[in-house]
Write a structure and sequence with these properties.
Layout: H1 6-21, H2 26-36, H3 39-46, H4 53-64, H5 73-82, H6 84-93, H7 104-110, E1 116-121, E2 135-138, E3 141-144, E4 151-157, E5 169-176, H8 185-193, H9 200-215, E6 220-222, H10 229-234, E7 241-247, H11 255-268, E8 274-280, H12 286-289, E9 300-308, E10 311-320, E11 326-329
Parallel strand pairs: 1-5, 1-7, 2-4, 4-11, 5-6, 7-8
Antiparallel strand pairs: 2-3, 8-9, 9-10, 10-11
Helix pairs in contact: 1-2, 1-3, 4-6, 4-8
Bound molecules: S-adenosylmethionine (SAM).
The site of S-adenosylmethionine has 22 residues, from β5 and β7.
Amino acid sequence: MTGLGAEDVAKRYRQFAEQECRGYSELYDELAVAVSEDPAILEFIATMPVIQPNLFFAAIQFLTRAAGMPKTASQLRVLVRTRDREIADVMRSHRTQTNEVGRCSVLLRALPPGPLALVEVGASAGLCLLLDRFHYQLGSTSLGEPASPVQLRCKTNGPVPVPTAIPTIAWRRGLDAYPIDVHDQEAVRWLLACVWADHPDRRRRLEGAIELARAHPLVVNTGDLVDDLPPLLADVPDDAQLVVFHSAVLGYVDLDRRHAFANILADTSKRRDVTWLSNEAPGVLPEMTALSPPGNERQFLLGRTRFTNGQRRDELLALAHPHGADLTWL
Ligand SMILES: C[S@@+](CC[C@H](N)C(=O)[O-])C[C@H]1O[C@@H](n2cnc3c(N)ncnc32)[C@H](O)[C@@H]1O
């Protein structure tokens, strides 16, 4: 139990509808508003250890599959009334998990020329580490593997630099507290259930990326992004440029751990240069938030920090849709 009451839950779901779904997912917008107005569903969610909308809707989709997801408030009410125990079991035994390859359209813009040694923290199944195996439509430019099962599109605003080639990736490694094994059918089913049910394109590209990860195995270490980062960085070969990146990750750890993470990168830069790419919600990294235009609450901040000899230089490059659907270059 979180100690939160029905009114707190209602507020969270209203916010989710307004700030994360509106104009992006009609279905989840409608369902989240329905939750916020239904006393019985609010009571049910308030008894859960985690009330997060994404967890609640993923638990439902895990049970119903995408095609059987409720479409209306009344269908949702009936489902929660008749399958409350099953939903509660899934919510208690799972955590929200995503691996959103759409974010690669954003990260790609900020990569230096290769050869690169890529380290992703909070990598989940590590699918974003396969960014050189995807196909990108960036405005009128197409890039990457035309026949890739992962086809990414990203609308752009402002003078976005268009890369002419995907840098060579000489080495890659992920780190995650709870990595997803792409060969574990149940884990994959949960990963897919976390994709919003009315986003079949996102689902298809995730399935495509899983297929690629099965064919081209990746290493994702199990561990904490602070405690277990130094030994991982010690393994990175010297003959490639080190890039450490993450998307939708640092918000899961306290501010002092975010500082500790940055300090590890600064220390590492005393023996080799480090490029740090961050793609996080506003407020997560104070240095990037300070550079952000006022009034931005929804778009992620794509930041690039270059560390040399322990010194950092921060640039805020772009505002990005949280799943990489569009990008505004600053
Ligand atoms: C929202 S998911 C994002 C996954 C991936 N970066 C993406 O863009 O799709 C957050 C990930 O961070 C991982 N995570 C959270 N706290 C962590 C920590 N302290 N150390 C390592 N990984 C962590 C979670 O296990 C999860 O896989």
